[in-house]
Amino acid sequence: MNKFTKSFLTFLGLMLCFGITTIQAQQIYKVQIKDEIGPNAWRVYKNAYQNALDAKADYILIDMDTFGGAVNYADSIRSALLNSSVKTIVYINHNAASAGALIAIASDHIFMQKGASIGAASVVDAKGEILPEKYQSYMRGLMRATAEAKGRDPRIAEAFVDPSISIPTLKPDGKLLTMTAGEAVKSGIAQAEVVSEKDIFVALKFEKPVVTQHKTTVVDAIIGFLINPMVSGVLILLIIGGIYAEMQTPGIGFALVVALVAGALFFAPLYMEGLAAHWEIALFIIGIVLIALEIFVIPGFGVAGVLGILCLVCGLAFSMVSNDYFDFKLAHPGMLFNSFMIVIGSMILAVILMVIFGKNILKSSAFKRLVLQDEQKSDEGYTSSIHKTSLLHKQGVAKTVLRPSGKIEIEGVWYDAVALDGFIEVGAQVYVEKHENYNLFVRKIEELDA
Question: How is the chain split into domains, by residue range?
Answer without folding.
Answer: 22-216, 219-370, 378-449
